[in-house]
Amino acid sequence: MTNHKDWKFSTKAIHIGNKADKESGSVSPPIHLTSTFKQDAVGQTRGFDYSRVSNPTRQRLEENLASLDNAKHAICFSTGMAATTALFQLFDSGDHILISRNTYGGTYRMSMNVLRRQGIEFEWIDTRDTENVEKHIRPNTKLVHLETPTNPLLELCDLTAILNICKKHDILMSVDNTFMSPYGQRPLELGVDVVMQSSTKSLSGHSDILGGVLTTNDDELDERLRFLLKATGGVPSSFDNWILLRSTKTLGLRYQKSSDNATELAHWLADQDILDRVIYPGLKNHPQHEIALKQQKTPNGEVIFGNMISIDVGTIEARDRFLERLDVFTLAESLGGVESLVCVPYDMTHAAIPVKAKLELGITETLIRLSIGIEDVGDLKADLQNALKD
Ligand SMILES: Cc1ncc(COP(=O)(O)O)c(C=O)c1O
Question: What is the pTM of this model?
Answer without folding.
Answer: 0.97
